[in-house]
Amino acid sequence: MLGRLLRQLRSPRPVRLATSVSVGMAAHGNSATTRRALEALLVSANGDFELLLVDDCSPDDTLAVFREVRRWHANTRVFAFSRNLEYCESVNAILSHARGDRVLFLSNDIHASPAYLRELLAAAEAHPDCGILRGCSNFVDNGSADHNVAIGRCETRDDYFRFAERIAAQHRGDALLDDRFLVGDAFLVTRRVLACIGTFDTRFRGYYGDCDFGLRARIAGFRVALQRRAFAFHERDANVDYLPEAERLEKVRRRHARVAAALREFQRKYGLELADASVHDLPWEALARRPFDPALHRIAPKDYAEYLD
Question: What structural domains does the chain harbor?
Answer without folding.
Answer: 2-243 (3.90.550.10)
